[in-house]
Amino acid sequence: MTRKKGAKVVRSIAAVALGTLTLGAAQAAEKVKVGLMLPYTGTYAALGTAITNGFKQYVAEQGGTLGGREVEYFVVDDESDPAKATENASKLVKRDNVDVLVGTVHSGVALAMAKVARDTKTLLIVPNAGADELTGPLCAPNVFRTSFTNWQPAYGMGKVAAERGHKNVVTLTWKYAAGEQAVGGFKEAFEKAGGKIAKELYLPFPNVEFQAYLTEIANLKPDAVFVFFAGGGAAKFVRDYDAAGLKKTIPLYASGFLTDGTLDAMGGAGEGLLTTLHYADGLTNAKDTAFRTKYATSYKMQPDVYAVQGYDAAQLLRVGLDAVKGGKLEQPAMIKAMEAAKIDSPRGAFTLSKAHNPVQDIYLRKAEGRDNKLVGVAEKALADPARGCRM
Ligand code: PHB
């Protein structure tokens, strides 16, 4: 009886305190409504979660606000399904009235989101999807990206593969924008350096029945293989490549998504793989050290490139919100500030190109244990060519 009464008193004190707090925040500032449209199921589920964690970590570091505003989240699992993308994004904009869309991982889904963003003049920050078009022919004042183009890391790998003496490469990936454009970036740098692509192999997204392709690679006997895979599918691919005996005979290269956040699930099969990406384990900047320590404490796991991109999406939004203080979310003022932003990222500070895509170092990394250890810089301050962007 007494204990129950005690609990009630504690609860009501907490309620009063909470009421005061909420009132204080409401008086101090407007809200910003953030629509998180990300995959929380399927082969890219872990990627969506890492982006969400990173975004929320930055907001938490600002005391739960961005640019002095309370952040209200509206969350949709987009399942990495382009067929559902327009409806999902429209719901966030029209029903929930979000001020900004943040998403997504899958290039095909992001292209549909960008169309909704353009049609409704909603601010969009892309924290992963590399679709070259978003900061190419479909670039727009209200569309920003804190991640990469599919071309960027793959271009870095094409150069590295040629430098390592390979002449004749087979590529394998999922047949959709991300895979095709990664192969395009690799091919551009590799051929420029005198290499040849012997064959481009494709399977539908998100299939993981790799056996027939591995048999074909074994028959073709190229100098090396380049792939784009990510998430759960990447772990399965590397395990299969190793089990087929190919890892010992034909070097495997990839955009670093292959091994980011997936090394544990590879159970050792990823050891020694060389990849290129705009993030690495073993960077020595102070921002990365602080970011990683906090991430490990908050989420009981190590961050990866996706967490970094989510964190930086929140940083970029904050720059926009700071420009309008507590007042109306005037897009021209926000956009102007965001275009000029220098983001103090755990990957190393970066600025945005005219097309709103990061200009960033592409690191060469080697998988060692649970880490993608920094080996060197494959491309310094690499800007996507942004072909077709008129802005
Ligand atoms: C993409 O679809 O653009 C994509 C997905 C997963 C990645 C990278 C790019 O890790």
Automatic annotation (TrEMBL):
Ubl conjugation is among the record's keywords: no
Q: What is this protein called?
A: ABC transporter substrate-binding protein
Q: Where is the Leucine-binding protein domain?
A: 31-368
Tell me the superkingdom of the source.
Bacteria
State the signal peptide span: 1-28
Q: Which UniProt keywords apply?
A: Signal
Keyword Disulfide bond (UniProt): no
Record-linked InterPro entries = BCAA_transport, Leu-bd, Peripla_BP_I
Organism name: Aromatoleum evansii
What family does this chain come from, according to its entry?
Belongs to the leucine-binding protein family.
The organism's lineage is:
Bacteria, Pseudomonadati, Pseudomonadota, Betaproteobacteria, Rhodocyclales
